[in-house]
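Researcher: We're teaching a course module on how sequence relates to structure. For the next exercise, students receive a sequence and then see the predicted structure as C-alpha cells, so they can try to spot secondary structure elements on their own. Here is the exercise chain.
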Amino acid sequence: MVETQFRFRADEPVADPAVTVDSFGEQTNAAAVRIEPGDDARLLLPFLDRLKLVDVNFPSFGDGRGSSSARILREAGYAGELRAVGDLPVDELPALRRCGFDSFAPQTPLDPADAEAAFNRWPDVYQPAADGRVPIWAKRHGANGST
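Model: And here is the predicted structure for the students to work with:
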C-alpha cells in the first residue's frame, strides 16, 4: 500500500552510509552526509564535487531549518541527491521540492497517490526557486519581464 521513499531523480539511489557534518571533513572517502537541525550546510560547500548524497533531517514538521540548508546547497551548485528525511507531512512535499529536494524518505509512510496529488495541486508558481519552475509572471510577460 505505501512506499516510504519518493524519488524524482533518474540516477541510481546512493547506498553509501551518511556521516555527520562534523565528521565529514575527517572522512576522506565519505560521499554521503546527514545534516541535522542546527548544522551549518555552508561547511559542505568546499566538498560539493565529492558528495553524492545529502540527507537533511526534519525531526518535526515545524522545523524549517532543513529547507534553508537545501537552498544553500542548490544555490551553491550541488547537483547530487538531496533527500529530506523525517517528519514530512504530505502537504509539505511540494515546498520541499521547490527548495531543491529531489528525494523524500518520510518516517511515516505516505500513500504515493497522495504525494503525487500534492505535487500536482498547483500548476503555477509565483517566484523562482531551486526546482527551476518558471514563475507565472515570466510565462505571462516573457522571461525578461517585458509586456
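Model: If you want an answer key for the exercise: Residues 65-75 form the longest helix (11 residues). The domain at 6-141 is CATH 3.40.50 (Rossmann fold).
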